[in-house]
Amino acid sequence: MYMQAKRIESFVRNKVGEAKARGVVVGISGGIDSAVVATLCTRALGRKRVTALIMPESETTGEKDLKDAVRLAKRLGVKYYIIDFSQVYKEFKTILPTFAEGARIPNGNLRARIRMCILYYFSNSRNLLVAGTGNKSELKMGYFTRYGDGGVDFLPIGGLYKTEVRKLAEEIGIHREITRKKPSPGLWEGQTAEGELGVSYSKLDHILMRIGKKSDRNIARGLGLKESSIRKVRKRIKLMKFKCEMPEIA
């Protein structure tokens, strides 16, 4: 993974240089993906060219996540801002005539899109690029909010499966308090990535690496899963493909 880190750092420098940007802005959540991206960007550019935004929301952000995000920013020595957008989210509740308290997915996506707006305000006003935190597993599965956490300028770890991100995190010294957490987008209380996807990342990555190379039956046998589980992954990839493509033009 050492060479992976070096390649990503070179990629970050090249993207910032090509855009003639002053640096990057990255949203850090207290989770592993954003911790790896923030760390690699800092190693690539130096701490003065990285701005970290910590964007809690009162209904969904846990105290531990907030503390872990702040601890990471301080350890990296980067400038960081805590921007609580709870009031902004509440305003949406008052102006949207169809707002429903129990609508988890649209409300969660709204939170992700508010965060994207904040990131791009910093990007535009300070000539920074928005460094995304998506990984290959989630990109393939379409497990992100379009124009939310999917609204970024470049993806430093987009070529790494989640299990590879974990290995890289250990190699570059990400604290265990972060690496051992259950992955979650944090868009509603109790949300976990593996719970929503219906499979652990370790098994999902094995499936994703083998789809197209082996039959569903052989993949299922090798992982101790039902063939229906492989078909569900394949179906989701097909359904969510549009998220990673530009909108079609008639």
**CATH topology label of the largest domain:** Rossmann fold
The helix-strand sequence is HEHEHEHHEHHHHHHH
Parts with pLDDT < 50 across at least 5 consecutive residues: none
DSSP summary, beta strand count: 4
How would the global form be characterised? Answer: globular
Mean pLDDT: 95
CATH architecture of the largest domain, by name, is 3-Layer(aba) Sandwich
Structural class based on helices, strands and sheet pairing: alpha/beta
The share of residues in helices is 40-55%
* % residues in beta strands: 5-15%
Strand line-up across the major sheet: 3-2-1-4
Biggest beta sheet attributes = 4 strands, parallel
How far is the N terminus from the C terminus?
43 Å
By DSSP (H or I, 4+ residues per run), the number of helices equals: 12
Question: What is the CATH class designation of the largest domain?
Answer: Alpha Beta
Gyration radius from CA atoms, angstroms: 18 Å
Could you give me the name of the CATH homologous superfamily of the largest domain?
HUPs
Number of domains: 2
Question: What key attributes describe this structure?
Answer:
250 residues, alpha/beta, Rossmann fold, 2 domains, 4 strands, 7% strand
Overall description:
With 250 residues, this protein is an alpha/beta fold. Helices cover 54% and strands 7% of the residues. The chain is built from 12 helices and 4 strands; from the N terminus they run αβαβαβααβααααααα. The longest helix has 23 residues, at 104-126. The relative contact order is 0.14. The mean pLDDT is 95.
Structure at a glance:
The chain has 2 domains: 2-179, Rossmann fold; 194-250. The chain is built from 12 helices and 4 strands, in the order H-E-H-E-H-E-H-H-E-H-H-H-H-H-H-H.
